[in-house]
Amino acid sequence: MADSTRVSEKELERREGFIRAGHRERSVIDPFTWSYPWKGASAMLGISVAALYLQNRWNKKPYYYAIVPRLLLIGAATAVGYAAGALRERHYQTRDAVIEHYMKLHPEDFDHFNDRSGRSFSQVLLPWYPRRTQYTRFD
């Protein structure tokens, strides 16, 4: 691979730290840095509040119409969103643990990942043999 396409180790670490979930600093104004339970809870809260607002507008009711049962439903929906996010986070943790365990048991299958520069494009492509239908003679 050409030296102009190689990236330094420091830059690779910065890129991987930026891309992977949970490796960036948490920020309240950036929901992409939130954990999965909080993403689920905030999504369900937003959907619930929007549904409450739209139903009140559609039925021409004031914002305080049946506010107590609706607030309880919004709280329940937010809790369901938090639980779904926690389940998703647990699923990803289990998946990553299984993959890491398999990689420890079979390191010879993952040796090609140690080369951070990767393969050149000519090594990735398979040879191409044109087979066109207008040629009637078969090999």
TrEMBL record:
Per the UniProt entry, what are the Gene Ontology biological process annotations, in alphabetical order? mitochondrial electron transport, NADH to ubiquinone
Q: What is its main location?
A: mitochondrion
Q: Which residues form the signal peptide?
A: none
Q: Which GO terms describe its cellular component?
A: mitochondrial inner membrane
Q: Which UniProt keywords apply?
A: Electron transport, Membrane, Mitochondrion, Mitochondrion inner membrane, Respiratory chain, Transmembrane, Transmembrane helix, Transport
Which InterPro entries does the UniProt entry name for this protein? NDUC2
Name the membrane topology term. Single-pass membrane protein
Location in the cell reads: Mitochondrion inner membrane
> Would you identify the family this protein belongs to, as annotated?
Belongs to the complex I NDUFC2 subunit family.
Protein name according to UniProt: NADH dehydrogenase [ubiquinone] 1 subunit C2
